[in-house]
Amino acid sequence: MLKAVADPARLRILAFLRSEPQCSACVADITEAVGLSQPTVSHHLRRPAQAGIVEGHKQGYWTWYSLKRTRLAELGSVLT
User: Which domain holds residue 40?
Assistant: First the structure.
C-alpha cells in the first residue's frame, strides 16, 4: 500500500481528492488541480487503484475517481 502513495504526484492527487466535498473528482478536474496531463494522472492513479485506495468509474467520456475512506484510514494507521 505504501508503494501506491510513494510518489509526490500521487500524494498531490490523493490530497486533492481528499479536499473535494465527496472525496471524488473526474480526471479533468484532477489534471487542472495538480498541473499534470490526463495520461499522466491516469498513470499515477493506477497504483492507488490497484492497492484499493481509490476506485474509478466511467461516466460518459470521463473517469471519476473517489477515495475509499476505509483504506485511507488503514494507510493512516500504518503511518502513525
Answer: 3-79
